[in-house]
Each structure stands twice: as structure tokens, then as C-alpha cells.
Amino acid sequence: MGHHHGRHAAPETRTMLRVALWIVGPLALLTLISMVWLWPTDGVSRPEEGASEEFKARITALHAEPCAEKLVDDVNGCGRVTIELESGPDRGSVREVAMPNGPGAPIIDDGDDVLVIVSASPDGEVYSITDHQRGPELWILCAAFVLVLLVFGRWRGLTALAGLVVTFAVLLLFVVPALLAGESPLLVAIVASAAITLVVLYLTHGLSLATTVAVLGTLASLALTGVLALLSVALLNLSGVTDDVATAVVMMHGIDMRGLLIASIVIGSLGVLDDVTVTQSATVAELAHANPAYRFRELYRAASRVGRSHIASVVNTIVLAYAGSSLPLLVLIVANNSSLSDVVTTQLIAQEVVRSAVATIGLIAAVPLTTALAALAVRTSQPRTG
Fold this sequence. Notes:
By secondary structure, the protein is of the alpha+beta class. It has 2 domains: 2-40 and 154-381, no CATH class; 57-133. 64% of the residues lie in helices and 11% in strands. It has 11 helices and 5 strands; from the N terminus they run H-H-E-E-E-E-E-H-H-H-H-H-H-H-H-H. A hairpin with an 8-residue loop joins strand 2 and strand 3 (94-98). Helix 3 crosses helix 4 and helix 5 runs antiparallel to helix 7. It is elongated and about 85 Å long. It starts with a helix and ends in a 5-residue tail after the last helix. The relative contact order is 0.11.
């Protein structure tokens, strides 16, 4: 077996890899042209009346008082809070504000670093505490994440970190500005997903036949996911507007929320898709390396068994991810004792069902597609032994 390993590892780098790149090359060029075409040239348009500006402040004293009446959404009780402003035009000045209360109000204590907003009133400017400052803690957590990734992953960890940078750059510098500029959300999502796939997979896994097959499998599965998402949203008459955030996006920026829902399904599927396609492509390559006598059928069957096991766990991951993000909604549903049939058909739940179902179908389709491509590529590039 050792003799065969050495003899069959090299041919991949020649003819078949060249053919694969002839396929990926035009896709990469088309993606680049599409990004340039969709790239907003006028910058991000800001609404004339946006959210109030936030300023940094520190709590220097709490002055608790008995409440005149019971508060429905009591968080900190009644009284006043003394703050010292650390940013803004009144930096360094001291103000007294009301205790923050209500749903989502921050629990405060003396010495806390907070964020405040200022609003106009008949008595002048009024400051209100809206949130805690979390900058230093977030930087520490991110530093710990980077350190663990580099220590454990070493060179692979560094390339994975570079891939994350590319992903966030595409999302923040291309996707969001293009959506705000009024471009088609579905088209933007497909182009962005293709760009992330082409750059990140080659960056993290190297320029190889296995990576190229994974790229092709991912792009094909993403196209299928996009079509299924488009059909599902239209068939179920989903508007994409299910909460105050979505309503604010429509009112302030005029974005097509149905398109944005479809785009979110496509982009959300990408992270799991590339995991499955890379695994399947690498599995086929390892099987062919371990047993060069395997033909296409044997490679496909063996790798498909691995893929089915992988799918079983990944599907649960998808559903749990969506369920976790919708946990407050699930609590309300159970508390209201609604029947299952009534609950599932509501737009809130139907939207999450569509996300999970479409992503899962695209994921399942990626396994046989990528496995077949990988087996065909390996068997074409490596001579078969007698």
C-alpha cells in the first residue's frame, strides 16, 4: 500500500486540477464582475431622522427612593442616578438621570460604565441610560478566541482567522451597503456567498483538487438553496416582516424584506454547506489514497456513508441554531397554550421552518453532488491499478 500511496498522490496536480480551474476561473471572474457592478458608488444613505446618538458615561452615585406605586417592569427600582459624561459635547459634566426601568433596561450599579442618549424636553435636555459599555470585555473575549484558535490550529488556525476577516469584510463592506443602496437582496447574497466561498475555501484549505471540488459543490448547492428559498417564500406568502426590527428596516431604508429573508437563508446556509462539501471532498481523496483500487462506485458508496452520518448531526445543528435564536418566541407560544397546527402556520414560525427546511435540503443535496464530483475527479486524475 505504501508503494501505491507514493505513486498515486502526484497526478492530481496536473491535468485534472487544470480542468477544474478552467471551470472555477470563469466563475471567479463572473463573481468579481458582479461585485463591481453591484458595488454602491454613492456610499450608504443615512435617514434624516435616525436613532439618537449615544454617549459614554460613568455612574458615580445611586440615589434609591421608595416607589410611589408598583412598577410593572421594575428592574432597578425608583430614584435618581448621578452620571459623569465621558464623551460628547458635555464631556466631563455631571448629570442626574432617572433609574432605567422597563423591558431590556440594564441592571446598574455604582461605578458602572454605561451608554446614555440625550433627548429634548420642555425642561431642556434629558439624559437616559440605555445600555452598558462592553468594549473592553469584548476585546478580551476576542483576544482569547484568537489565541485559542492559533495555539490549537497553528497555521490552519491563522488561515481560518484570515477567512473570518474576509467573510466579515464582504458582509460589512459589500452586502450591507449594496442592500442599503437598493440592490436585489437575493442577487447580492448569491454574489457575496460565491465570493466568500471562492476566497475562504482556497485560503483555508489550499489550492488543490479536493478544495476545487468542494468549491463547485458549495456553489451548486447554494444555487439550489436560493431557488428553493425563493419558491418557498412565494408559495407560503411570507413577507419577511415579523418584528419591530424588520419594520424599522422597511420604514427607514425601504429594503425588500421578502428578498432579505431569501438572502438571509442563502448566507446562513453557507457556513454549514462548506463544512459538508470540504469534508466529503477530503473523504473521497483519503479513501482513494488509502485504496487506489477503489473505482468510482466504491469511492462514492464509502464516502456517502460518511456523509450520511455527518448530515444526521449537522441537520440537528441547523434546527437547534434557529430554535436557539427564536427561544423567546417559543416561550410565548408555550405560555399561550396554542395548538401546534395554529402555531406552525403563523408567519413567525413558518419563516423559521422555511429557513430550517430549505437549508437542510440544500445541505443534503450537497452530499451526493460533492461526493460524485470528488469521486469522478479522483478517478479521472489517477490511473487505476490492475
